[in-house]
Model the fold of this input.
Amino acid sequence: MAGNQPRDDTAGGLTGRWRRWTRSQAEVEADELKKRVFDADDIDLTRIDCCTPGETVTVTGMVRSMTIRPRANVPALEVELYDGSGSVSVVWLGRRRIPGIDPGRTMVVRGRLTCNTDSPTIYNPKYELKPTAG
Done:
């Protein structure tokens, strides 16, 4: 009667395997980052895609990019922080560089989320650098 068993199309079955096999590299990396970031149980974190403008949030993620932007003759270091669910701009006014903050580095950021620009932004947050892998 083994030939008459119903097909298993659940996440562990053929459909689930097909979904895992056909994911893009970006989806795989996002899932791995979410797993690594949100498995930390030492702090109360909010997923970036679940943050509400105006509230004080604690988010963590990987630095995707860094930009120095002059604003009214005052430098501003802008970092894109990505946690696998979304990204947020983190801006330190009056800074051109902060030692230890580099692309690929994981960090925790605490501050008030604003949406005055096109993307969610946290200005002059408190931050904690996480140890580098390796």
Summary: The chain has one domain: 36-129. The CA atoms of residues 20 and 28 lie 9 Å apart. The longest strand covers residues 56-71. Residues 5-10 have pLDDT under 50 and may be disordered.
